[in-house]
């Protein structure tokens, strides 16, 4: 048991040592990359941005300003073009990833939450706030006038159904029904 604990401690110590060594290596690599980027930046600036020499006369200063403005405009146009290309590429990437997602057929359904909402609030949410719709269901119903139809009169005239059955029962009742049919 003591031997296993000692082995575990040794393994843990070795793991910690390896972690610290890896971190030290990573720090030195990051410092080297930063120094290389700085050197690259200085080289680029020396190549593309020559040191500024200000001329003495007003005419030469105006010429220099015009050149600088022209250069700024061309650089701005390039920046705009690259931005548009980037946006177009991003849009294509989104479309392609959506197509890929659709082709896989794995649709992730978001978890739905129960929401207590009245019919008016639901319509307002669906149609927007500019549509004022009232969900008074009784207001939308048609008014129906009750008309006396012949069937209803017959039913009222019949009265008690037992009397009606007794009248129609037997041979005399059938005879009455037969004569009424003709």
TrEMBL record:
Tell me yes or no: is Thylakoid among this UniProt entry's keywords: no
Keywords noted in UniProt: Acetylation, Actin-binding, Coiled coil, Muscle protein
Record-linked Gene3D superfamilies: 1.20.5.350, 6.10.250.180
Q: Which residues form a coiled coil?
A: 27-106
> Acetylation: is it a keyword of this entry?
yes
Q: Name one GO biological process term.
A: skeletal muscle contraction
Q: Which terms in the Gene Ontology molecular function aspect does this entry carry?
A: actin binding
- InterPro entries from the entry? Troponin (IPR001978), Troponin_I (IPR050875), Troponin_sf (IPR038077)
State what this protein does: Troponin I is the inhibitory subunit of troponin, the thin filament regulatory complex which confers calcium-sensitivity to striated muscle actomyosin ATPase activity.
- Which protein are we looking at? Troponin I, fast skeletal muscle
Q: Name the source organism.
A: Acrocephalus arundinaceus (Great reed-warbler)
